[in-house]
């Protein structure tokens, strides 16, 4: 009876995570429409119609060979593999990557065998779910590592098993992000992983460092001067609007900086982020 309740609870959590990501896709589409680009500019033709069925694996963004790579923290991303068996989740993650690294080639896979084939192309980054057809989670991720040893792997999933995550960390995975996170926080988690850090749920970080109150944080250089300014004002208890007035920038920009500070310090919320930054001597 207990196993059945746990299974039902897990199903509800996964459905909630997928609904959240679907809502983010709709928000991204709405922003593109307001900007005049149209939904089709991201996933189809200019008038919003799709160019026929999309394969499970594709190079989403065709950019000129001589186009410079651009990004926002953590270094450039030339190509990114997104592996998830839900198309809406893949689209939401692709929109997050494209917003930060517009020149990155996006590869998609809906199962582990397709992901292994794509990994042979040695992308810089892989955003992978754990529960996909074709292999068990640990075996599937281990094969991804074998196919592209230099590729950074951030697991984006709605299912968390502490023992499995510790096992995957020992096998070289670079972090875990819940599907319930906002696009800004997932983007900051990607930047942290690309910069050589690890993005971990708080409880997992505490399991790795049982004698320390705070989980390991990235070196201070990963926080920009603007992020440090925002973190200092967060530590004083200022709201996003207060910080925006103090620094003379838009509240929406402050919201993004706050999300990045939270992610880069490995915190669960703004209060904890300020505490960690203070304890680590960043402020």
UniProtKB/TrEMBL annotation:
InterPro entries: CheY-like_superfamily, NreC/VraR/RcsB-like_REC, Sig_transdc_resp-reg_C-effctor, Sig_transdc_resp-reg_receiver, Tscrpt_reg_LuxR_C, WalR-like
Region (Disordered), start-end ranges: 42-75
Alphabetical keyword list: DNA-binding, Phosphoprotein
GO aspect biological process, one term: phosphorelay signal transduction system
GO molecular function list: DNA binding
Residues covered by the Response regulatory domain: 79-194
Domain HTH luxR-type: 216-281
Residues modified to 4-aspartylphosphate: 129
Highest taxon above the source species: Bacteria
Descriptive protein name: Response regulator transcription factor
